[in-house]
Design goal:
The structure holds two protein chains of two kinds. By secondary structure, chain A is an alpha/beta fold. Chain A has a domain of 145 residues: P-loop containing nucleotide triphosphate hydrolases (Rossmann fold, 3-Layer(aba) Sandwich), CATH 3.40.50. Helices cover 38% and strands 24% of the residues of chain A. Chain A contains ten helices and ten strands. Chain A has a six-stranded mixed sheet with strand order 6-7-8-3-9-10, sandwiched between helices. In chain A, strands 2-1-4-5 form a four-stranded antiparallel sheet, covered by helices on one side. In chain A, helix 6 runs parallel beside helix 7. By secondary structure, chain B is an alpha/beta fold. The longest helix of chain B is centred in the middle third of the chain and has 23 residues. The radius of gyration of chain B is 26 Å and the shape is globular. The chains are: A alpha/beta, B alpha/beta. Chains A and B meet through helix 5 and helix 7 of A and loops of B.
């Protein structure tokens, strides 16, 4: 499989993030290129999710610069990230449990909807046509993720693995150019992991979506990533191709605990 | 064998392509096929189908497909795959549908045996299977796929997107407008129209060659008996390789001109059924069984009022429902009660099952439990049985309306002649008999006797009204060591009517008593266990629970109580049984792809268990290798408990 990896679209330079006296991230720099699968790995508490939250605009680093498509990004809020076509999934599933799969994925289209609240409430004006158009997009996502059979099922009744898939569906419905996945395979069995891997690769391949992935399962990471960043205690200890990272002594030490 | 008379009666419509183009001419805008795509039902009219078939046929011809070539068809029921069947027939080729859930190695035999040069497959999964065994298939030249998803990086030149093939065909058709009509004209009524492989309960699968007239005759007979019109709808969801699907979704649809509806995916069949509300429905007993099980489970969870209402009216239906459906005379009071029940229970229930519009529902493939059968008829669903096999286009006996006997498969269908051989085997003759087994003149000669009767291999008899009753496979019918008849299927069917029993295998030939293996129904028993607060961690664990064994013992004792009244089968009461630690699975070769038990294989594989049953042991350890869907292997092991069931003394037979 050969795909074209493009230019750097997200460049993080010397990022430091503190919560009071706790240093979550210290002087971290790395970049993400267009169309690649970029993984962030590290032991518990290494700062992976903090890193993702920085990219997404949930946290604001005290030091460092972030460049998005070459432009320096000032203070940013999560909804701005959504408007810039960055979508994400969460480590703990954050879906509307009482709503159907279809409706949950529909919420992913929210930034694309132009009609206002009143039009929606009254099913009037642009709302109707717009819903048809968005429904079509949502159906494409449902087809893509092969979840037709649970289209109308309330999310709360689904097994964990499928809920994760629905969450990915909601992120995909936003047609993101960059997708942030926070441990999409945590707590899954082998078969569910295989399915999820296939979907991540398919998203990357078919839609050209850039993917930033946090994952614990080393096997998965090494198999599907183009490049890997390794964090430990908020510091970057490795960065490069999966094979380079695998043989990096600092990484081995952090994971196997030698020297600690 | 098809006769000249049949041919003449067909009035020029003696091949399936001719039938298709005739529909496209006479009723171009009527719906021919539907498929749910992106959540919405899409309809193709007859003229649209005809246009696509033309394009596909011309495309195939462009690739080099010739008269006499075989075309493998592998995939779920998709409109394009059905169209491809007709396209192959247009060119005088023979479609060979395969079971889509078979692993590559299982497909290999058929693909080699039929010398497949061309294959049309549904998606990437099937393409991968063919690529996996391509080395062993030197004859395979082209693979066409319907769904392009995931195929972007496949750059092999022998892979073709079906839309590209159609485009190619359309160009060819524009340049040679007379070509296809000429090819269709050349089609002879006695050409092989399709090759269906037998599931191979015994030995290697055999390719059954059926002619156009055979299938058309079978379809016409069925359409005539049930007065099927062109306005019907059928849900096509059973494997295309199965003769039943070919008869109903292909042959009858083309003869009568009704609409076939393809479900979105295998998992959505139930909701698609509700949305379509077919007028014509076809399912093996297993599906009716699991439908009933799911209804019963949900009724257990219903509120008190609903629960009691349901059971009250089900009693009413049991008393008079089937008679009302048969048009027999029923007391006025009962009739009123039934009408009320129809309003409150049966109607809504039919709606939930997606059977509100059903004119005829059929079941076949295996014997159906009489209670199960009665249940559907009593709530007003015209469920009937028919009898037939691949070699007879699934068309031998049908139950005519208002003459339904629960324990028979009906009377010989129009044009069919039935004889019972001296050994009890059912012999059949008619226009729907197979032309031959592909490349197997020896097997063909063996299966048809000197008078032209086909040997079905089933044991049965005709009752006083001329209804055929099937007891079992002729070769499975044995004797207990005391000489009493032992028909395992008969007992197993009785067991399988309990919602808790998914599969049963009985042993007893040449032994003193009958013993059984049971597979529990995960849904029903799981629900039962949850209700009682019994924790379990999957099938194997649940199967080993004492409480579950007790539950099953009660079921078996009920069957025994029932059997003791049966003069022929009283000796076949089940003395001992065990619950298998894994579900019997076609992937492990224990069931055929049509989900019939491979009796001998199971007996051999679990010999230790059978020995334990007959040696009087109380438990036995077993470890079994299982294959997962993706081809990986694992092991399941358990220490199985063996349980004795109460049997009943046989009343002395009157002298």
């Amino acid at each position: 499989m050969s795909k074209k990896i493009g230019d750097v679209i997200l460049d993080l330079q010397n990022i430091s993030l503190r919560f009071g006296g706790v240093k979550a991230l210290t002087d971290i720099s790395f970049d993400v290129r267009e169309h690649e699968i970029r993984s962030i790995i590290g032991p518990n508490g290494a700062g992976k999710s903090s890193m993702l939250n920085v990219i997404n605009g949930v946290y604001h680093p005290q030091d460092g610069k972030i460049f998005w498509h070459g432009q320096e990004r000032r203070k940013m809020e999560p909804h701005m990230a959504a408007q810039q076509n960055i979508a994400r999934t969460f480590q703990n599933i954050a879906l509307f449990k009482g709503m159907s799969v279809l409706d949950n994925i529909m919420t992913g289209r929210i930034t694309k909807m132009k009609s206002n609240f009143i039009e929606h409430a009254l099913w009037f004006g642009r709302a109707k046509n717009e819903e048809l158009e968005h429904r079509r997009k949502v159906e494409e996502v449902i087809d893509f993720l092969e979840i037709q059979h649970i289209r109308k099922t309330p999310v709360g009744r689904l097994p964990y693995g499928l809920q994760k898939r629905v969450e990915l569906g909601r992120a995909l419905a936003a047609e993101p150019s960059m997708l942030l996945l926070d441990e999409p395979m945590a707590g899954m069995n082998v078969e569910e992991k295989q399915d999820m891997c296939r979907f991540i690769l398919d998203v990357n391949d078919q839609f050209g979506t850039t993917i930033v992935l946090i994952e614990h399962d080393m096997g998965v990471v090494m198999d599907i990533s183009d490049r890997v960043v390794v964090l430990d205690y908020g510091k970057k200890i490795g960065d490069g191709l999966p094979d380079d990272v695998k043989n990096n002594e600092d990484v081995i030490r952090a994971y196997l605990g030698a020297g600690h | 064998m098809p006769t000249q008379a049949n041919y003449a009666a067909l009035d020029g419509l003696h091949t399936f392509p001719r039938l298709l183009f005739n529909h496209a001419r006479t009723r171009p805008n009527a719906p021919a096929m539907r498929e749910k795509y992106l959540g919405i039902w899409q309809t193709w009219s007859w003229s649209e189908v005809a246009e696509r078939v033309r394009a596909l046929a011309c495309g195939l011809s462009e690739l080099g497909f010739k008269r006499g070539d075989n075309l493998a068809i592998i995939g779920d029921n998709r409109p394009h795959l059905y169209m491809m069947m007709t396209a192959a027939q247009c060119l005088g080729g023979v479609p060979v549908p395969l079971y889509q859930d078979a692993v590559a190695a299982e497909m290999l035999f058929v693909l080699q045996d039929a010398s497949i040069r061309f294959a049309i497959v549904e998606d990437q999964e099937q393409v991968d299977k063919l690529l996996e065994i391509r080395e062993q298939l030197p004859a395979l030249e082209h693979i066409v796929y319907d769904d392009p998803r995931g195929m972007r990086h496949y750059n092999q030149t022998f892979l073709h997107d079906i839309h590209a093939l159609m485009e190619m065909g359309r160009i060819h058709d524009r340049n040679h407008p007379d070509f296809l009509n000429g090819e269709v004209e050349k089609g002879h009524y006695d050409d092989t129209s399709v090759m269906l492989y037998t599931s191979g309960t015994t030995g290697k699968p055999k390719g059954v060659c059926q002619t156009h007239t055979a299938f058309i005759a079978a379809a016409q007979g069925g359409v005539q008996v049930d007065r099927m019109g062109a306005d019907g709808d059928i849900l096509s969801y059973l494997p295309m390789a199965w003769v039943g699907d070919h008869l109903f979704s292909y042959a009858q649809a083309l003869v009568a001109g009704f609409t076939i509806n393809c479900p979105e995916s295998g998992d959505t069949v139930m909701s698609d059924l509700r949305e379509i509300g077919p007028t014509y429905y076809f399912a093996p007993p297993r599906v009716f069984e699991s439908l009933l099980t799911s209804v019963m489970i949900r009724m257990e969870d219903a509120g008190k009022l609903k629960y009691r209402m349901f059971h009250h009216f089900m009693e009413v239906a049991k008393r008079c429902g089937a008679d009302i459906l048969d048009g027999k005379s029923v007391a006025f009071g009962e009739r009123m009660q039934y009408a009320l029940g129809n309003l409150l229970v049966y109607g809504p229930l039919r709606n939930v099952l997606g059977m509100s519009r059903i004119k005829v529902a059929y079941t076949a493939g295996a014997a159906i439990g009489p209670d199960l059968f009665k249940f559907y008829r009593s709530i007003g669903i015209n469920l009937k049985q028919f009898y037939g096999q691949t070699e007879t286009c699934a068309y031998v006996c049908m139950q005519p309306d208002s003459q339904i006997k629960f324990d028979s498969v009906g009377q010989p269908a129009p044009g069919v002649d039935i004889k019972i051989a001296d050994n009890g085997e059912v012999l059949v003759k008619g226009p729907m008999l197979l032309k031959e087994y592909y490349k197997r003149p020896d097997a063909t000669a063996e299966s048809i006797n000197g008078d032209g009767y086909f040997l079905t291999g089933d044991a049965g008899f005709l009752d006083e009204d001329g209804h055929l009753k099937i007891i079992d496979r002729a070769k499975d019918v044995g004797k207990l060591s005391n000489g009493a008849m032992f028909a395992p299927n008969y007992i197993e069917n009785k067991l399988k009517f309990f919602q808790y029993v998914k599969e049963a295998v009985c042993f007893g030939a040449n032994r003193e008593q009958v013993c059984a293996f049971i597979n529990i129904d995960m849904g029903a028993v799981g629900n039962w266990a949850e209700r009682r607060g019994i924790a379990y961690a999957g099938y194997t664990d649940l199967a080993c629970k004492i409480e579950v064994l007790e539950l099953l013992r009660e079921c078996i004792e009920q069957v025994n109580a029932d059997l003791v009244h049966d003069t022929m089968m009283a000796d076949s009461q089940v003395h001992r049984f065990l619950i298998l630690h894994k579900e019997l699975d076609p992937d492990d070769d224990e069931l055929t792809r049509t989900r019939k038990v491979r009796r001998n294989f199971v007996a051999e594989k679990y010999k230790v268990l059978i020995d334990a049953l007959y040696e009087g042991k109380t438990n036995q350890f077993i470890e079994t290798e299982v294959k997962f869907e993706d081809g990986r292997r694992g092991k399941v092991s358990a220490d199985l408990k063996i349980v004795d069931a109460k049997t009943f003394p046989i009343a002395k037979k009157a002298a």
